[in-house]
TrEMBL record, chains A, B:
Biochemical pathway: Amino-acid biosynthesis; L-serine biosynthesis; L-serine from 3-phospho-D-glycerate: step 2/3; Cofactor biosynthesis; pyridoxine 5'-phosphate biosynthesis; pyridoxine 5'-phosphate from D-erythrose 4-phosphate: step 3/5
Limits of the Aminotransferase class V domain: 4-337
Record lineage: Bacteria, Pseudomonadati, Bacteroidota, Sphingobacteriia, Sphingobacteriales
Top class in the EC scheme: transferase
Pfam families for the chain: Aminotran_5
Cofactor(s) recorded in Swiss-Prot or TrEMBL: pyridoxal 5'-phosphate
Name of protein: Phosphoserine aminotransferase
Catalytic activity: 4-(phosphooxy)-L-threonine + 2-oxoglutarate = (R)-3-hydroxy-2-oxo-4-phosphooxybutanoate + L-glutamate; O-phospho-L-serine + 2-oxoglutarate = 3-phosphooxypyruvate + L-glutamate
Entry's family note: Belongs to the class-V pyridoxal-phosphate-dependent aminotransferase family. SerC subfamily.
SUPFAM superfamilies tied to this protein: PLP-dependent transferases (SSF53383)
Compartment annotation: Cytoplasm
UniProt-listed NCBIfam families: PRK05355.1 (NF003764), serC_1 (TIGR01364)
Principal subcellular localisation of the protein: cytoplasm
Organism: Sphingobacterium corticibacter
Assembly information from the UniProt record: Homodimer.
């Protein structure tokens, strides 16, 4: 058995893989593969309608918000957000908490003036800045809710009198979020929503159409909203597998139940990191991510050995990102407590063997 | 058995479905699903390298061209092409042969002046305009090589002294094309390349970086080329299934062998349409598409009956697009001659039953 600690595209439930595999052969008894059905067929229209309805239910999306399934990943949203929300000659505020927020604000500079209200780059993004002022004339404040690379997460909503825009790619569906506090939320699917190839956007309709800018149709949220995410051929399979995964999440009890499990999983791993003298966490304790647990060894010379042992036990994806080094255990929704046990057991065994 | 005549997403070979289904459970014996592997893993790097190499081999792409796997469909290329190739204050030429070329030129107008060199809209796009002048100062001439909706195809390369840009979404890999005659070719995958969710772009490098415009990274071909289509997380599964399909095409003997099969398939169907007094083709004979065969009944009142009979025999996707009416048989690479036989047999039986 494999324990997939990869940062993404990442583990999804085994049952989802089994159902997806079957649908590639025969989708819902149609005699056709999910890969060869028309996106205009009544079968696929039911899939995309269910995708929207599951997102609306699981995230408790209020009225007045559109739910879109787009392509291009979160990186495309780095451009589409300012394209659609930042007025010509306007300004927007960005909170810089890591590689992805840096990229987001860099792309936004193509569309207007950008205020970086705070940055944690001074200490290799190991913490979340807490106090900063957001200009009242900013079109929005953009923040990255979870920093996949650096293992930090924002648990207290940024305070601002302007609409909040959040890249939730790596923690959406992992904890309860109040959508109504946000103007726009986006997320690449490939962590807790589904496979790579589809991007979720939840946007407050009243914010759209106000930039004074002509937006090419394919980059215009209003066009996608009007067409119910079928402005052009959508990524059929990625949306279908997302539906399978969101059904699984709903059957588990939804986001709040998942959040409790994720708290327990993260606590067990961080407790071992803090207890075990061979290991050390890299993020500030209060800002530690529940999705991506970053840690190093107090003696870096032992890291290769530990990784090799982990591999022997079927653990994959544990190597840390080069920006942080050491290890990163991504412990998304579908990763069971047995995988956490396998890792903490190995950490204890390693300690005993080397003491 | 189903005969899938759908216009796209469309039929792919059964063996491709079988292999794709297996990879969703266990990719190449890794113990992991293709849906949960990292796009930075050596396993996926081999997949995307093979995708590029198969495209290069099958289309005989010369040196000096980049091969990109992007997201967003051909519709996103309607904007990305002028974003990247149409200089600020420049102009581009478009040949208008149907719904998709109309959409392409409409989006291009966001980026510069557009000359529509010719249009067949006067006769519901039932033919390909043959004589027109292309302004010498156009940055490029854009044409749609096959018009999926109207059932026409361009067999003689447009004559122009400017770079050719072609949307080949619905006939790429179905016939031999001289890439060197083009500055850029793009194609949504979901006909003859693979499932929906990935878009192929083949672009001559020397045309890039000359617009004088700042392009957001995600829309910049040069960024994608520099990153070997891994600027951000690619649509892993769609690329993988495209590789399976292109391997199948290569094993069949490649594009020229496929072209011969497609000529035979199309000829058999058009011959029956022309012979059978109950049916009538909608496109000019010399411009008839080998991929999308559009036809109506001489007595339209019988169309519902014919469609119902076809459905009884397992034929799906035959209903014509509302812009043309009647029927559209999409006969892409993976559709075997047995499906053509099933359709022409039914047409003959229908004739006999109604005579």
């Amino acid at each position: 058995m494999k324990h997939n600690f990869g940062a993404g595209p990442c583990i999804l439930p085994k049952d989802v893989f089994a159902e997806a595999s079957q649908a590639v052969l025969d989708f819902n008894g149609t005699g056709l593969s999910i890969l060869e059905i028309s996106h205009r067929s009544k079968e696929f229209e039911a899939v995309i309608a269910e995708a929207e309805s599951l997102v609306r239910e699981l995230l408790e999306v209020p009225a007045g918000y559109s739910i879109l399934f787009l392509q291009g990943g979160a990186s495309q949203q780095f451009a589409m957000v300012p394209f659609n929300l930042l007025p010509t000659y306007g300004r927007a505020a960005y909170l810089d908490t890591g590689t992805w927020s840096s990229k987001a604000l860099k792309e936004a500079k193509n569309f207007g003036a950008i205020d970086v209200v705070a940055s944690s780059s001074d200490r290799n993004y190991s913490y979340i800045p807490k106090s900063y002022a957001v200009p009242a004339d900013a079109a929005y404040l953009h923040y990255t809710s979870n920093n996949t690379i650096f293992g930090t997460e924002i648990f207290d909503l940024p305070q601002a009198d302007v609409p909040l825009v959040s890249d939730m790619s790596s923690d959406i569906f992992s904890r309860v979020v109040n959508v109504a506090d946000h103007g726009l939320i986006y997320a690449g699917a490939q962590k807790n929503m589904g496979p790579a190839g589809v991007t979720l956007v939840v946007v407050k309709d009243e914010l759209l159409g106000k930039t004074g800018r002509t937006i090419p149709s394919i980059f215009d949220y209003q066009q996608h909203a009007k067409a119910d995410s079928m402005y052009n051929t959508p990524p059929v399979f990625s949306i279908y597998v997302s539906v399978l995964n969101l059904r699984w999440l709903k059957a588990k009890g939804g986001v709040s139940v998942m959040e409790q499990e994720n708290i327990i999983k993260a606590r067990q791993l961080y407790e071992e990191i803090d207890r075990n003298p061979f290991f050390r966490g890299t993020a500030e304790v209060e800002d530690r991510s529940r999705m991506n647990v970053t840690f190093v060894m107090t003696n870096p010379a032992l890291e290769e050995e530990f990784l090799a042992l982990a591999k022997e036990r079927g653990m994959v994806g544990l190597k840390g990102h080069r920006s942080v080094g050491g290890f990163r255990a991504s412990i998304y929704n579908a990763l069971g407590i047995s995988s956490i046990n396998a890792l903490t057991d190995l950490m204890r065994e390693f300690e005993e063997a080397h003491n």
